[in-house]
């Protein structure tokens, strides 16, 4: 089997890395290196360096799976107690360095392949950078992190490496197991949030975040019921794939239990848009296969029985569900914001107001309607994002930027769904179809998604796109060299 040349850093390189990390900590937060921190911080740095050295030797699929798991805590590292240290972003850097510096873990990983869609993704990033520079928001933390995580630079880079990282069946099975385990955690956490016992919720910051969610909706570690809904639905899709592929009864029972828990967790978000998107994604993906059409009706009935039984057994849950269904305030907020967004789009249709400018520039475009109150306006104490992702991009990037972003999304996801590949990828393509339909529908009535949503979509798209094995790449290169006529001297 072909093996790529790799580089193993000497021991003193890892020691220098640890010393550089300690120097950086001392420069940024010198107060941490006093008292118990004088012993604890160096020990933690040592453990981190040893873990990084181990990851350097492992296939990058392990690191990407760790990124997906840690991404559920994105934006909450301060609450966890890590001082805002973004572990998920740091591991993404590790993945990229594994390819750039030829880590031992990529010895049998296929080489990266640049496609035309990657050029469009790069053009999209450049356009948004120029928009942020022109609007003066590139130096703002919120706008910059949205560009990196939500649009964004990080998901697009992972889309580039994912076909090579998960080119083998073993790596894809690792990702599938990761999503099933993650779904079990997210589904159970949603149940504990809504029905108890609250003592089983981990990390504990989730309880404090729940206070900020009206109607006691399940938001999980994301602190967002919409992102929680997407994550539980995507993990339910992965669990269905595992149920059909995994050998052994115990594993299939685990996958089946994860499906039930995730579907119930998705319902507990009490988001009407999430419910509609989940139903649409399931139905459309199921109708594309003979097996899906056969199991669609029994599956819908089983889900209805689970949800209906829970509503009958829990009057409190039934009351919260009824209150949420009849809630008009969120609808009025969206109506006000949509009207203001349309006025802004009409004012600057081509290039928009600039990346990250909606919150600051929107208040003057709100108008009092005749049939509902005026709500949803951003204030210095409360930032209200535009609850329509498509309109939000039109307002900030203009029609040109919004069409560029949408074209990049459809092209990248479309290649993942419709490109030819081995039969092993068929289930990943169907799963990608389901979660993308969910994403497209839920984006109509919600702000641009959180990092986890975009990250998982683009990683999944890269997996479904696939890549020739390293052996196939070497064989094609040799065949191309033999077919090239020699130039006479």
Detailed description of the structure:
- The model has no long low-confidence stretch (mean pLDDT 88).
- The chain has helices at residues 11-28, 37-57, 60-71, 77-80, 87-100, 116-135, 141-151, 153-165, 169-195, 205-210, 225-245, 249-267, 272-287, 290-313, 315-325, 329-347, 358-361, 389-418, 426-442, 451-465, 470-483.
- It is 69% helix and 0% strand.
- The longest helix has 30 residues, at 389-418.
- With 489 residues, it is mostly helical.
- The protein has a domain at 10-58.
- The radius of gyration is 24 Å and the shape is globular.
TL;DR?
The chain is mainly α and 489 residues long. The protein has a domain at 10-58. 69% of the residues lie in helices and 0% in strands.
Please tally the β strands and state the result.
0
The ordered H/E elements are: HHHHHHHHHHHHHHHHHHHHH
Largest β sheet strand count, sense and barrel closure: none
| Chain-averaged pLDDT | 88
Please supply descriptive tags for the structure shown above.
single chain; 489 residues; mainly alpha; 69% helix; 0% strand; globular
Q: What secondary-structure arrangement, pairings included, does this model have?
A:
Blueprint: H1 11-28, H2 37-57, H3 60-71, H4 77-80, H5 87-100, H6 116-135, H7 141-151, H8 153-165, H9 169-195, H10 205-210, H11 225-245, H12 249-267, H13 272-287, H14 290-313, H15 315-325, H16 329-347, H17 358-361, H18 389-418, H19 426-442, H20 451-465, H21 470-483
């Amino acid at each position: 089997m072909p093996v790529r040349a790799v580089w193993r850093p000497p021991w003193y390189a890892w020691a220098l890395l640890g010393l550089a990390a300690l120097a950086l900590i001392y420069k940024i937060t010198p107060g941490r290196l006093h008292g118990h921190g004088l012993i604890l911080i160096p020990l933690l740095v040592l453990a981190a360096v040893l873990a990084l050295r181990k990851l350097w030797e492992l296939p990058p699929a392990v690191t990407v799976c760790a990124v997906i798991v840690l991404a559920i805590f994105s934006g909450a590292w301060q609450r966890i107690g890590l001082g805002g240290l973004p572990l998920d972003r740091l591991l993404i850097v590790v993945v990229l360095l594994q390819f750039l510096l030829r880590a031992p873990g990529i010895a049998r990983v296929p080489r990266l392949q640049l496609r035309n869609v990657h050029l469009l993704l790069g053009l999209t990033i450049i356009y948004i950078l120029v928009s942020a520079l022109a609007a003066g928001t590139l130096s703002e933390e919120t706008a910059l992190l949205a560009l990196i995580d939500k649009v964004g630079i990080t998901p697009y880079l992972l889309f580039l490496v994912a076909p090579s990282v998960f080119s083998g069946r073993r790596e894809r099975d690792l990702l599938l197991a990761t999503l099933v385990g993650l779904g079990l955690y997210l589904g159970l956490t949603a149940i504990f949030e809504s029905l108890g016992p609250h003592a089983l919720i981990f990390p504990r910051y989730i309880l404090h975040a729940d206070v900020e969610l009206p109607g006691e909706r399940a938001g999980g570690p994301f602190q967002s019921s919409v992102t929680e809904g997407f994550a539980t639905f995507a993990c339910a899709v992965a669990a269905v794939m595992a149920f059909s592929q995994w050998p052994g009864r115990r594993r299939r029972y685990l996958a089946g239990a994860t499906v039930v828990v995730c579907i119930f967790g998705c319902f507990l978000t009490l988001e009407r848009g999430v419910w509609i998107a989940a139903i649409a994604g399931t139905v459309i993906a199921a109708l594309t296969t003979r097996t899906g059409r056969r199991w669609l009706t029994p599956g819908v009935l089983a889900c209805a029985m689970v949800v209906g039984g829970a509503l009958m057994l829990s009057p409190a849950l039934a009351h919260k569900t009824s209150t949420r269904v009849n809630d008009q305030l969120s609808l009025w907020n969206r109506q006000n914001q949509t009207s203001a967004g349309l006025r802004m789009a009409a004012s600057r249709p081509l290039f928009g107001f600039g990346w990250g400018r909606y919150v600051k520039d929107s208040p003057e475009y709100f108008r009092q309607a005749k049939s509902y109150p005026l709500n949803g306006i951003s204030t210095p104490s409360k930032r209200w994002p535009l609850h329509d992702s498509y309109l939000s991009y039109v307002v900030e990037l203009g029609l040109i930027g919004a069409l560029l972003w949408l074209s990049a999304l459809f092209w990248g996801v479309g290649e993942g769904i419709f490109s030819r590949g081995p039969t092993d990828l068929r289930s990943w393509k169907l799963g990608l179809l389901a979660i993308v339909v969910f994403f497209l529908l839920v984006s109509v009535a919600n702000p641009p998604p959180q990092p986890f949503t975009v990250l998982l979509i683009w990683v999944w798209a890269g997996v479904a796109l696939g890549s020739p094995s390293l052996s196939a790449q070497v064989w094609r290169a040799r065949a191309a060299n033999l077919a090239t006529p020699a130039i006479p001297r």
